[in-house]
């Protein structure tokens, strides 16, 4: 829906995981007075004829049967101003936590992936330099555990964490028209890491108390020396 000239570059993502028919429509808002615009649909630089037209809307119908037909489709309206509205047809993206996952040795890490539509299969990987190594959860049940909460949600648990588990993990959702990936960064801290601030505070307090005690001893000694000097003078 085009509501005004300020929306001169509209963008919209459209998730397409399986072969299907798609209808894309550009429609002018009834309050937006763009007189007699010339409308062209394009995929990249290729011009596409629209299949239906009304006074304020233009539509194309697509049959998406393979991944090469995904991509960007734009309707270009030329009048007093030029307006471009683009639809990005793509396989469903994976939703997941973007911040690093921080936990401690001996604990467990949980990674959850979610998609708009259910994929055909889920696969988890661990980065090994520039390569991705598939995680075989069936033969490492004491280390990895998969929980499928729903067809479009997949959860990986890494048990008994050690420093060797630090790294980047990936989940992949496979659809008929392609696949999507999502990365997770895992950081594993030593179990004494939370104690470090406490130890630092205790050390500072100890130094302060020791300094005060030494100062009092020094002050008393100086006072004793002054009294001894006074007695000698008498």
From TrEMBL:
Coiled coil: none annotated. It comes from the Eukaryota. Residues 17-75, 92-187 form the Ig-like domain. Pfam families: Ig_3. Signal peptide: none annotated. This is EMB protein. It comes from Oriolus oriolus (Eurasian golden oriole).
